[in-house]
Amino acid sequence: MTRRTDLAPTALRRGIATVDDLRARSAIDPRTHCWHWQHARGPDGMPRIWTFDRRSGAKACLTGPMAAWQIAHDAPPTRGHLPYRVCGHRDCVNPAHLRLAANRAELGQHIARSGRLRGNSTEQRRANLVLARAAAGIVTTSTDVVDAIRAAPKHITSAELARDLGMWPQTVWRLRRAQPRIEVPT
Ligand SMILES: [Zn+2]
Fold this sequence. Notes:
two-stranded antiparallel ribbon, binds zinc ion, elongated, single chain, disordered C terminus, alpha+beta
């Protein structure tokens, strides 16, 4: 991890304005590409970021996903949509790990699903890797993706997995049924 906390006080007062500002204040995980926020967090563990809120047109203290989304897009999220992290790391502010949920129910499903994917640490690591790759727009079905798809609990449907991974449901369905099972060293 790279830790960069050498900040000018004036920069902190001004607030976080750019993606570079977000990155500079985070510890970067070179494996998952998660940007772990190193500054203020709320009691829920979510980053609290002082930045320009495009919804109100004034500076405000926003949660990590809301701040990172607005900074990266220079716009508020689509009306009625909420940004969430596909990597499942509460303190991650990498804009590439954000997606928009259409409503709270969809967001709830995502949270429940990421909770269910959280098994042993190996499984968790695989799931995070897959989600980070999907968030970065990598859609090739590499061995780690195949491995993670096959490691996913059976009660998660192929359609749900496909949606999270940005893949065709048929591809996921076939990969889950393909034999023999390929064991990938970790
Ligand atoms: Zn992340």
